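notes to self, project folder thing:

trying the whole complex as one job this time. last attempt i did each chain seperately and stitching them together was a nightmare. four parts in total, labels are on each line so i dont mix them up again. if this works i'll redo the older ones the same way
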Amino acid sequence: MQQKLFFASDYMEGAHPAILERLIETNMIHSPGYGTDDFSASARNKIRHACQAPDADIYFLVGGTQANATVIDAVLRSYQGVIAAESGHISVHEAGAIEFGGHKVITLKHRDGKLSAETIEGFMHSYEQDETHEHMVMPGMVYLSQPTEFGTLYSLKELNDISRVCREKQLALYVDGARLAYALACPENDVTLPDLARICDVFYIGGTKCGALFGEAVVIPKHGYLPHFFTTIKQHGALLAKGRIAGLQFDTLFTDDLYFRVGKNAIDTAAQIRKALSENGFSVAFPSPTNQIFPVLGKEQIAILSEKAELGFWEHMDEKHTIMRIATSWATTQEDASALAALLHEHNNLRSGGKPV
Amino acid sequence: MQQKLFFASDYMEGAHPAILERLIETNMIHSPGYGTDDFSASARNKIRHACQAPDADIYFLVGGTQANATVIDAVLRSYQGVIAAESGHISVHEAGAIEFGGHKVITLKHRDGKLSAETIEGFMHSYEQDETHEHMVMPGMVYLSQPTEFGTLYSLKELNDISRVCREKQLALYVDGARLAYALACPENDVTLPDLARICDVFYIGGTKCGALFGEAVVIPKHGYLPHFFTTIKQHGALLAKGRIAGLQFDTLFTDDLYFRVGKNAIDTAAQIRKALSENGFSVAFPSPTNQIFPVLGKEQIAILSEKAELGFWEHMDEKHTIMRIATSWATTQEDASALAALLHEHNNLRSGGKPV
Amino acid sequence: MQQKLFFASDYMEGAHPAILERLIETNMIHSPGYGTDDFSASARNKIRHACQAPDADIYFLVGGTQANATVIDAVLRSYQGVIAAESGHISVHEAGAIEFGGHKVITLKHRDGKLSAETIEGFMHSYEQDETHEHMVMPGMVYLSQPTEFGTLYSLKELNDISRVCREKQLALYVDGARLAYALACPENDVTLPDLARICDVFYIGGTKCGALFGEAVVIPKHGYLPHFFTTIKQHGALLAKGRIAGLQFDTLFTDDLYFRVGKNAIDTAAQIRKALSENGFSVAFPSPTNQIFPVLGKEQIAILSEKAELGFWEHMDEKHTIMRIATSWATTQEDASALAALLHEHNNLRSGGKPV
Amino acid sequence: MQQKLFFASDYMEGAHPAILERLIETNMIHSPGYGTDDFSASARNKIRHACQAPDADIYFLVGGTQANATVIDAVLRSYQGVIAAESGHISVHEAGAIEFGGHKVITLKHRDGKLSAETIEGFMHSYEQDETHEHMVMPGMVYLSQPTEFGTLYSLKELNDISRVCREKQLALYVDGARLAYALACPENDVTLPDLARICDVFYIGGTKCGALFGEAVVIPKHGYLPHFFTTIKQHGALLAKGRIAGLQFDTLFTDDLYFRVGKNAIDTAAQIRKALSENGFSVAFPSPTNQIFPVLGKEQIAILSEKAELGFWEHMDEKHTIMRIATSWATTQEDASALAALLHEHNNLRSGGKPV
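result (full assembly):
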């Protein structure tokens, strides 16, 4: 019997085997706690090198919401808020973690998950022009995600434009890279780690969804930009006693380009599926070049496909159609991608009487 | 050449080998995220069984400070504070995580890290008698640690007495079990997991310091006691995407009594060292029957011992003496314990002209 | 020389003379602090009577933002947020006071400042349907203002409909009555104080903008609904030592229908100005039947009018037009209203070549 | 029949008559809101002059807890806490307002309500020496009250010493002057307003307990020290719409030395009572030279005295004795003080068989 195919998300398996091997190898070595160990030091150096940011402060946190809340609380003053897309993870899916820290998430319109320099500039202009703006939350930083929650990418030009607005308006710029590996490995992408290190005040390199058991590497390109950040991490319950476990994982991910290879696997398999969708008359809700694909499917199609493949639910579109999510990852095999492509071919949308939505 | 001995803390190595094996075995199995996987379900059942608490809600968090802050914020109403010993981890070593959530830590006097029912009752009496008490933070819960930060243990009678006061005064009772394995395996201990489940409103079973890579199992004996706790966990940045990694570890720790075996190894090796200290004329700052020992050493002694063994710093006692910490763990071998004993014999405190402090 | 006319806001003068007289009369009487005095007790009774809510808990706070933040923090559990119109005072003009307390303001679309039962129900439906809603802030209450920030009014039917949704969805209902006197005295209004007491879980009767020096009366119709609210008030820095000063003012406002007379004066003078605007070809941005009028004026018109009358700025509409605010109050004389009407006649919009916008 | 005497607190009456007169005089003058009015501007200038601090930023808030919470939140970074005496108002009687803002109150031992430079220095030394101090709340400021909650005074030398420690350790220094008038008018006092302006980073001049209806003047000697403090005030619900009401009161208090005359009346009447206590064999719990006196009385004495005079409760001392509080104020007449003195003579402690406690 054929096994079910799993494409619901990019955090359904354990970790890249290289990481597990490393954990076993080093298991009985003694090291001090809280990220002061040699593995973490080595990982930091490799990341500094990859980012061409020799003075960067780097901290390893456990998860994305935690990284976002801790960084945002550290960057903002108590009277400030953070600008984000209405679809931003911090606006929608972090259960109010930013507000828990006392800060408003100021939401702006987006396009396929992306904020534009114009939108931010326009908002800042109207804020500054408003005679009552001292009664309002003061915008203190901009939150972006790369890739976005829609799997889309900021181009280098777009980021440079946003960065210019941020500098003019004294807004810190922060990029959430929960799935950064899948941006970096994407042929459409022209934003490198050194670009991010040059453009951002803080960004994080995602591990959890990119091959690690868990872990996000927060990069602060300018040394000392966030004083006492260690204490802020502890205050947020975000300090790992066995910091080495996070450090080791990033040390492995930044050895022999593993982080980029992890990304490439997901991008290649996603391309294969994207091609199959297109060839078989299925449409997508919006174009996303990274490891997430958002096909629009009818209820019956979902029922049929779901027998053989687990897809993710994204959003009800209308009474008849639902936007689903197909996510590939470091763990997706070519075999699985081919099997899904075959399944799509078998249930060809045009042949089955449907039409491209 | 002899390797250095490591006794500075109980989180210096990776994880118990059984846990790593399990991670490898299950690595490529697909599972849903956020703790809804089968591994976590299995772990919950085993813990419910061990606690004789069939209806308990159980959540796996990453670390102790995180577990404490999340639980305390979930239990308390916004106008309430938590009672703790002056030496309690939440009072001293969590960088203000409880206050970050808006709650005062109300500190009371302790004895070797332990609060007494009398102390709590006396405080509540004076709070209630104070005509201005509505201008004060209302005490809403009691935080204890078992074993305490001093390595000491509450007896069952002591916990029952505290529990009685808590019920009378409508205080929730919460026990921090960061090192619970080392209490459970201790011959002096008479408090079992079912006792804790009966006495506490919430407690957590520590993983990080008891053989896991990371992880703490929060046990809420009465189902539904903390509504929407999942959302509170997310809000605190404490929700693991790959919840299975925590679930798997606890599933392993609660298979074949591993959690208890982990504890026993630490207790046995600690006993060996405690014996060597006593026989060689060294004194301890306070009696601690669990995996932590607090010898009082002179500066020279520290210098000499430190060449061969890494001990932890605890506190400056006076100009000449320092309280150090020796911690054993699941990872301490009998060979290491014997080597430390031999070292203590070699530098016998009496022979070297010292006297028991 | 003619004095300037003042219509920029409804908090430009001191207090209704009856309040000052009362302060003088009672000045040297001794009373206990923190709202436990006889004046406050008397005011509470009069408000209970006016609301037909004999068991209501009533507290006097100083200002609107303070009342909103204190009430919302008291009603919500830590994982909940408050639903408000995008234009709601708590969303826009309270400098993040709600987020400071840890709660998200969940903003929904409005119509002239008003939320509808359908909008709230639709939002709750999509929240409940969303498979990831446990990762989101849980909506716990609805915030409305009566009159709204746009000077508009909810009808009794509209409030009853919203109330029905709130009960079905277990959302507390809270009404901000910063300018409630101006709703109650408005001929278009069909919502009474007893209606509010029946419909709301909490509401406040505004004093600051309705004739008092300062002060808002928070009404909690169901006794004991907010346990330990006194302590929450103190925690928010919102407890007046000389609580009598607030109590006295509300005691005066609820003696001989003063609160309603204060409202009526503003409504009558606003009607006079509204008539003059209409007769002279000026248009308003949206219809508002209470004490605030929002004329659309050209830049030149603003320049000319501003020489003789101080109006409030509301919003830039387009390059040529600005929405201004004319506010009347308890302190507006018929003479001032007539003088403004004359001024509008003098600069008749049609005669001056303009046309109704 | 003789009227009862009132000495329970210093906030039992309305306001100094000069303040009420001023409110009446100016009642119908139009002014802009939120403290941008001329009355507030004038008050600021008078306070700057009195403090010899020509560049000081000055804001008028409503009450003491509000002022403390707003200032402390503005001064501290999110990872910092505030040092206070265990008896400090922010530690005990503000219902957790500081923790609500996310900050720990770090309590140190005091002597009659006073912290010493040595105590602070000792604490900072042990904090810095502690190898785990990055896991602790970082001390960011020192909170003192002048006079203290015990009615005692810091000498200029004591404040200078504390200031030196604060500068060395980069701690902001903040003085709570809720009853500052009673310090300034006290013969034992050698600390002037210019001294406070020189020594403190922020302090506040109390109005509520010193002759005003309400109000505290927050003085920030160095212009710009707290950027966007206006927004922080709004965020804390502490911004008065009719800011003029607070401004007017301070303008009056700082005209013709009213603030100092208000203080002197309280000090003179307190001296009269203190003399009567001493002459009639009553003892005090601790020496307090300002407007608060803390006699130690037996239960029967309290019962007898309470028939004719309302005293404040302070603390149960032992089974037989209670510490009571006698407070004088701007509103205490010499007649009342004489009447209380006569009452004490009538119930002479020695004659009645008692002995000085």
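what i see at first glance: Residues 268 and 334 of chain D are 8 Å apart (CA to CA).
need to look closer tmrw
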